[in-house]
Amino acid sequence: MTTSSTAGETPRRRVGRPIKAVLTHESIVKAALELVSGKGYDGLTMSAMAKKLGVSPSALYNHVTNKHEVLILIEDHLAAQVDVSAFDTKPWKEAVSDWAWSYRQVFAQHTPLIPIVAVLPVTDAPRTLAMYEAVSAGFRRAGFPQERIVPAIVALESFIFGSAYDATAPADIFNTGASAPSTPNFTSAVSSFEATEGGSNPDRAFGMGLDALIGGFGVFLPLSPEAEAAAHPAR
Amino acid sequence: MTTSSTAGETPRRRVGRPIKAVLTHESIVKAALELVSGKGYDGLTMSAMAKKLGVSPSALYNHVTNKHEVLILIEDHLAAQVDVSAFDTKPWKEAVSDWAWSYRQVFAQHTPLIPIVAVLPVTDAPRTLAMYEAVSAGFRRAGFPQERIVPAIVALESFIFGSAYDATAPADIFNTGASAPSTPNFTSAVSSFEATEGGSNPDRAFGMGLDALIGGFGVFLPLSPEAEAAAHPAR
How far, rounded to the nearest angstrom, does the alpha carbon of residue B32 sit from its chain's CA centroid? Predict the structure, then answer.
């Protein structure tokens, strides 16, 4: 389907409406993300999208059946930006770390979509499925127990989504203000944390949690021959 | 300030409006939570709250200055439901675990508020501060390094918020459907996970992640005299 004008002819712009865009999944996702950025998730309606795209609602419905389909397109668009390439090139621990940092960065830029994407079935989202397939394959190749791959990924994702919010929190979120005298332990813990150097506060909290998760999940990996030998020197 | 009628007199009910409630912080929070449950966070406006409470907007403004103040009341109301008592009675690892499970349960019932609470400064929220004080004191008593207390709490909270969403996800969220042939690793990982017994899928993912975080953070604790002796048997 095409909505373009005859080649060589300048399209006549209708008063008060943007130039009619060629409707593609990409242009629909772009319009949807702009609406969410501007007005939050509740600003995302089929009619608002049609208006933003400069098309009639019926033209939009020719491309996407309903809002759920738009959400799947958005989920896929975001998943495709998450870098899973390290699972092909690096050891498991580094690959998980690279994936998690990339995943958090993508969602820190789109926090209003977290409540949606966190509970959206992946069935019809091919690029989201491709991400999970790459990650699962990486876990499996490393020797991670089959039945623990999904809960490990879910736990990492939960941590990533929550950390994406924290990445956008105001710097003074833990300022105890006038309550400092009644919260001596927390107040001094906040001061000590803020006096430490090396990266933003959210980055340091994320790094510390990610190290713990990767280290904790690492115990499920089979030992390398070298580590095996070190653990059982008597053999 | 009181809005109650004369003692002994039955208040006359105005047509189409609920009986005028005595405005308290508790009744305001209750109305606010009901609005969010029904219509999501965007349903929470000062005028909708006044209507729900059966009072004029000006009466409501006599009790809370603005929506931000309502959000602080909500944050405090939820924080007060999180159980921190284990920090007074149990070893650090168990206390962190009890706190985290309780925290997740509270927010799994109020996921629309996560995007707000996750980035809301705690300065004017006394009960939220009391929670952080109890947790910080528990970490400190256990010997956790001062400058690592806050990032550890932030990482745990991020994991808890994300896991609260997962606790509300549909059971078929990872159904690969017609894409199963192109996602063999992920599809078999999902099957293996679902074939495992012991708790709901979200609970198992949460438990696995929480164990990893607590174990990973546990390395920052000083060794007990027994553990110290075991680690250095030559001494």
Answer: 16
Compute CA distances A163 → A77, A105, A140, B156, B161, whole Å: 20, 10, 26, 10, 9
Mutate which: B129, B191, B196, vs A, most A CBs within 10 A: B129
Tell me the three state secondary structure of residue A109: coil
CA distance A171 to A150: 34
Task: State both tokens at B164.
Answer: 């609260």
Interface of A with B in 78-97 (CB under 8 A): none
Domains in chain A with CATH codes: 25-64 (1.10.10.60), 82-221 (1.10.357.10)
**Residue B153 corresponds to which tokens in the numbers above?**
């709490």
Decide if B40 and A40 are in contact by the 8 Å CB cutoff: no
What count of Cα atoms within 13 Å lies in the side-chain half-sphere of residue B149?
27
Residue A96: what pLDDT? 98
Residue whose C-alpha is closest to residue B123's, from A168, A162, A183: A183
pTM of the model: 0.88
Residues in chain A: 235
Q: Name the minimum distance, in Å, from the CA of A29 to any CA of chain B.
A: 22
pLDDT in tens, A51-78: 999 999 999 999 999 999 999 999 999 9
